[in-house]
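Hi R.,

Here's the input for the magnesium ion complex you asked about:
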Amino acid sequence: MVQLKSKSEVEQMRKAGAIVGQILHELKDLAKPGASTADLALYASTRTKELGAKPAFKGYNGFPATLCVSVNEEVVHGIPSKKRVLKDGDIVSCDFGVILNGWYGDSAKTYPVGKVAADTMKLVETTEKSLLLGIEECKPGHHLFDIGAAIQNYVEQFGYSVVREFVGHGIGRSLHEDPQVPNFGIKGKGIILKPGMVLAIEPMINAGKPEVKVLADGWTAVTVDKAWSAHFEHTVAITETGNPLDV
Ligand code: MG
Ligand code: MG
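And here is the predicted structure with magnesium ion in place:
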């Protein structure tokens, strides 16, 4: 069941979202050659405490860290490690969430590390653009799958593919609420979007084929063909005005 949020609840969620956005923004400066993925996670943990929030991911279904850090062919849910040191030309996807006063915030960005190949930058920029196109569909009266259709139609024209196994989601007092928000689908299908729905849209786009598998650590999802993957996530509330509100 989709839980609608009141305007005052959305305002509270935006405070959680602002902390997520702030810390993710700061992580950009740490995503440099020579930094380990554990360095990024430690920074996120420290800043979460400083800003008065709690980490949303640590312990969630047993996930061991505050930040998911996924490098290159890793798609999502990478476990931070001191042994995984970023190199010039890598891309690093940081997926991060907090809880503030019982409300969840969730967002993700993929950062280039040092100087990145032009075709890799194209993947990153196309994924970010697809997120914006998905968000543009977050209007009352639109159908849920309009979001995924916009994302899929955009990225596939570049020969990229959409991950099927992981999807966006409603968010609120829980990290993952109904509805699931696929990054693929047919325009005009799915439930009708209504004011008060708060959705985390999060395209995971592969440079190669869509198939992913989970490594033996039980978490890290990688592309089967080892092509690189990018991930951007943003949370929005659907509003009466028609303009999605950043959460
Ligand atoms: Mg996330
Ligand atoms: Mg999410």
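One thing worth noting: The CA atoms of residues 79 and 217 lie 8 Å apart.

Cheers,
M.
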